[in-house]
Amino acid sequence: MGSSKNPSFASMAALLFGFCVALLFPELAASRTRHYTFNIEYHNVTRLCHKRSILSVNKKFPGPRLVAREGDRVLVKVVNHIANNVSIHWHGIRQLTTGWADGPAYVTQCPIQTNQSYTYNFTITGQRGTLLWHAHISWLRVTIYGPIIILPKQNESYPFQKPNKEVPIIFGEWFNADPEAVISQALQTGAGPNVSDAYTINGLPGPLYNCSAKDTFRLKVKPGKTYLLRLINAALNDELFFSIANHTLTVVEADALYVKPFDTDKILIGPGQTTNVLLKARSNFPNATYLMTARPYFTGQGTFDNSTTAGILQYSHPSHPHSPLKTLPLFKPTLPPINATNFVANFTKRFRSLANSKFPANVPQKVDKKFFFTIGLGTNPCPSNTSCQGPNNNTKFTASVNNVSFALPSIALLQAYYLGQSNGVYTTDFPTNPTTPFNYTGTPPNNTNVSNGTKTVVLGFNTSLEVVLQATSILGAESHPLHLHGYNFFVVGQGFGNYDPNKDPR
């Protein structure tokens, strides 16, 4: 009889402890663990009358949605059924203490080999909105990508009008050729890679391409309703303009962070960037349909895909929901010119942190270290006994930061660091300032060669950095977005020309 009381007391104690934990840490009670399985496999797809076997996740193109709430733990088992090694990057997720789950091959992990699996384990911390996931080795991300949808915590609302429906819209690219063959040829010859054959909206090129009218994304809306469009640019390298004819978009979030809302009829979205916008449908059936279109913003030299992808905004008639659309007029949006730099600069300046009591913008007031990074294209010499198609037909195009082009190691950097085996894998002498200053946006230097190496900078935890990113015109000016893995940063100034610390915004 005495022994029977102990389990009862233990159960009550455990129950009381659990209740106290829930009271002290309510976010633990509200969060949950979400499990996903991603099977990387071959998948036959036809676009532009070209049928080919693509690489996909769970035979979906684009891939499946990953949905979680802020505070949730996410476990994704990735199983590799293809001949290529693969890794998955959770683009924009703040990897706080889970850097090994970030995904770039040979940086935070070795890639997943054929017939092997790996489980990614991370927690959504301080983020809500839209991000994306994609393969992060070679060019597998051309078809291996999908949306990450982060909902607010349970019982928390958006800081803007609640939409009637939420719709992911993912911009991508379609190659009639095998993308791996395209990038392999470019790396071998040193020339720029062949461009894609089409841009896509949710995997569909749309009616402006030949043999593509049936492969058109349709956004069906009801009069008077509000829609949250989760815009994602999964294209390889291109910034894209986007607009919906005769409709206004309200920007409310970018890269899983709320922003001060602003209205616009056209947006710019960089590769890897996400932007949430509210679309308010017209109050009455308009007796019309509307194109939504996207095409690139481009200021560099060389060839690029100068085509336009389109989808259709289609209203449901309240009395005749199945009425034919061919008889309705079709309105087309007007996008900025290909090289509309003024529009891009003005549009970008409109993004501001929400910066209220609930979502403050805690910009560091003390800077521990200052970095100055020059970014651009240079050259590498052509290897002996080979022919190259870079500048002067005897060099290869090579991207660099502070004149250093990154060379992939043979094992993951994080693994080598953790095991104390950095010798021969990487060095810690990456230059935090240009080794040879020059007129970055003026006359190009005579020597355009860059060095190659696996160089890193090791920083202490909680270091506050000021990083100046300086574009260059070594082989011609270009617009080049940059993405920081695993964490967010604050944009505190921007401008044209060479950065002047005494005059430019701080």
Automatic annotation (TrEMBL):
Sequence intervals crossing the membrane: none
What cofactor does this chain's UniProt record say it requires?
A: Cu cation
**Uppermost EC category:** oxidoreductase
Q: Name one GO biological process term.
A: lignin catabolic process
Which residue ranges does the record assign to the Plastocyanin-like domain? 40-154, 166-317, 430-503
Question: Which Enzyme Commission number(s) are listed?
Answer: 1.10.3.2
What detail does the entry give on cofactor binding? Binds 4 Cu cations per monomer.
Q: Tell me, what does this protein do in biology?
A: Lignin degradation and detoxification of lignin-derived products.
Could you identify this protein by its name? Laccase
Origin species, per record, is Quillaja saponaria (Soap bark tree)
